[in-house]
């Protein structure tokens, strides 16, 4: 590169560019995603099928994975499940042409952190990517600070301070694990984040807009359905009767109330 060419100035304090893996078999969509993510400054790799995605994810440290559902060799649900089973907790944004609630809930239960239904708005997708990466950095920095300070350790940390208990259930915000109707399992990033908001405001009405702002960082987005679908997933985890919930109540036209 010649001296006349522009180049980014990287300081010691500047964070390295986030690594993103795009998993998409449709040529036009794949190339469009790669191009626009690279324009935003991310380091991007592309996989065209589920097996290639697992191979790349196993050999590389990605901060976020954009994962299509309908893939050759292994679909997005299987890829996400295998990643989580192998201990890979990179943020996963699932891209799907399916918009049925059961499919979306299944994706979240498979370990995805968020989803978007095709066709999607590019500006919204990039905002979701930025939000997921920002939250991932925040969680990583928080975990590092806890480790340095000995939080939760035997020498003075209080592990109960990061655990929410309600009824016969519990949620551990440090490990993302929870006791659910299906046994102890890991919650998704969005499920954990929503439960954190509920834990801060027991018995209070939490508007959907507040959840959009704090969990998705999209306070002015017109579609609150993303909130409702995470609530559906949480009810399947913690409510024996989702039509008559004990803990996560709907407040018509406003949002939700969490009752421990």
Short description, anyone?
With 260 residues, this protein is an alpha/beta fold. The protein is built from 8 helices and 12 strands.
Helix-strand makeup class? alpha/beta
Largest beta sheet: strand ordering: 2-1-3-4-5
Number of helical segments?
A: 8
Strand proportion: 15-25%
Q: What is the overall silhouette?
A: globular
The radius of gyration computed from the alpha-carbon positions, rounded to a whole number of angstroms, is 19 Å
Domain count: 2
Stated plainly, the CATH topology of the largest domain is called Rossmann fold
CATH 4th-level superfamily of the largest domain? Response regulator
What's the helical proportion of residues?
Answer: 40-55%
Assigned CATH class of the largest domain: Alpha Beta
Mean pLDDT: 82
Main beta sheet strand tally, sense and closure: 5 strands, parallel
Could you tell me how far the N terminus lies from the C terminus, measured between alpha carbons in angstroms? 60 Å
CATH architecture of the largest domain: 3-Layer(aba) Sandwich
Tell me the series of helices and strands, N- to C-terminal: EHEHEHEHEHEEEEHEHHEE
SS elements, strand count: 12
Poorly predicted tracts of residues = 1-13, 142-159
């Amino acid at each position: 590169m010649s001296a006349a060419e522009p180049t980014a100035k990287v300081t010691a304090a500047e964070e390295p560019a986030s690594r993103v893996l795009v998993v998409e078999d449709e040529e036009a969509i794949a190339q469009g995603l790669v191009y626009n993510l690279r324009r935003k400054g991310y380091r991007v790799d592309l996989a065209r099928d589920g097996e290639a995605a697992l191979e790349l994810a196993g050999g590389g440290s990605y901060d976020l994975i954009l994962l299509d559902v309908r893939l050759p060799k292994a679909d997005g649900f299987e890829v996400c499940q295998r990643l989580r089973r192998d201990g890979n907790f990179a943020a996963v944004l699932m891209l799907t042409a399916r918009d049925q609630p059961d499919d979306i809930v299944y994706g979240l239960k498979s370990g995805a952190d968020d989803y978007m239904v095709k066709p999607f708005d590019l500006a919204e997708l990039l905002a979701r990517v930025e939000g997921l990466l920002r939250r991932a950095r925040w969680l990583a920095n928080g975990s590092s600070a806890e480790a340095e300070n000995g939080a939760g350790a035997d020498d003075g940390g209080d592990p109960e301070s990061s655990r929410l208990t309600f009824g016969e259930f519990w949620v551990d915000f440090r490990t993302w694990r929870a006791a659910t109707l299906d046994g102890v399992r890991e919650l998704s990033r969005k499920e954990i984040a929503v439960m954190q908001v509920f834990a801060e405001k027991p018995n209070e009405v939490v508007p959907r807009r507040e959840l959009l702002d704090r969990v998705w960082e999209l306070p002015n987005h017109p579609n609150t359905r993303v909130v409702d679908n995470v609530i559906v997933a949480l009810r399947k985890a913690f409510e024996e009767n989702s039509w008559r919930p004990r803990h996560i109540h709907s407040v018509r036209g406003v949002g939700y109330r969490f009752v421990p």
